[in-house]
């Protein structure tokens, strides 16, 4: 049997994306290799505790993606950028809280998981970006 026609139009893609973010629980995954300069082995004990607090305040509270964005998505500077990861162009976002330099960089996969790509305890990623931009 065919699909029934209605007078309703499909929402534009941006609206649909926001709607999903408001309903989907924030989850993290380790899918691709974490950047070697920003991986777990580079973290000190206090950085691991900060990362644990991030998980406690997001994943373990079962916040939605929108709620997580409201609390942790950076609002100044390049909060989103395109990066090639595993041969695929990805929209990378970074999360951090208040004036704490600790940042978690990653992207959302097709299953709605935030895939961690870099754990940046000292907010050095943007310093590197600025240095590479000024060398052009």
Which helices and strands, and how do they pair?
Blueprint: H1 13-23, E1 27-29, H2 45-57, H3 65-72, E2 80-85, E3 88-95, E4 103-108, E5 113-120, H4 125-134
Parallel strand pairs: 1-5
Antiparallel strand pairs: 2-3, 3-4, 4-5
Largest sheet: 5 strands, mixed
Shape: globular
The proportion of strand residues reads 15-25%
Mean pLDDT: 81
Separation of the first and last Cα atoms: 59 Å
Q: Output the number of helix runs.
A: 4
The structure class reads alpha+beta
Number of strands: 5
Rg, Cα atoms, Å: 17 Å
Share of residues in helices? 25-40%
Name the poorly predicted regions.
9-19, 129-136
Strand arrangement across the biggest beta sheet:
1-5-4-3-2
What sequence of helices (H) and strands (E) makes up the elements? HEHHEEEEH
Short précis:
The chain is built from four helices and five strands, in the order αβααββββα.
Mind explaining what this structure looks like?
- With 136 residues, the chain is α+β, with helices and mostly antiparallel strands.
- It contains four helices and five strands; from the N terminus they run αβααββββα.
- It has helices spanning 13-23, 45-57, 65-72, 125-134; strands at residues 27-29, 80-85, 88-95, 103-108, 113-120.
